[in-house]
Prior knowledge:
Structural class: mainly beta
Helix content: under 10%
Distance between the termini: 21 Å
Amino acid sequence: MSEVRRPESGGGPDRPIGDLHPDYPLPDVDHPVTRPFWDGCRERRLRVQRDRETGAFHWPPKPATWKGGGRLEWVDAKGTGTIYTWVLGREPFLPAFKDLLPLAMVVVELDEGPRLVGYMVGCTPDEVAIGKRVRVVFKPLTERVVLPVWELVR
């Protein structure tokens, strides 16, 4: 399965994958706490929260009422980091993931500090290792759901 499907004529906008398994779990892109993250992914921007007072970056996202509210803002991350840890999935925990196996699932420590969970694309499991540099790429699943996934920086 390709990461981004493009029209046969080449070029053009990213198209969602049309053959998702009916059991593929999709996030709630309208949840008030995480909506800015998913909106950013649709725009091909990796967004995280930052504390206006301390400058600290936060993941997972926190509600607007965190520490009295108003301290957190959504900012664009660089979209680069290192593999903090990883595991190779060989058995599908859901039928929807059968065609993705084997799948290198990673925890990426962003250059800004937070750690995000995702999976690797564009490489073999033998190429994945703790400490390797990665960058985000975006995989459209539906018109509204675009996942951040990771590829090695070569």
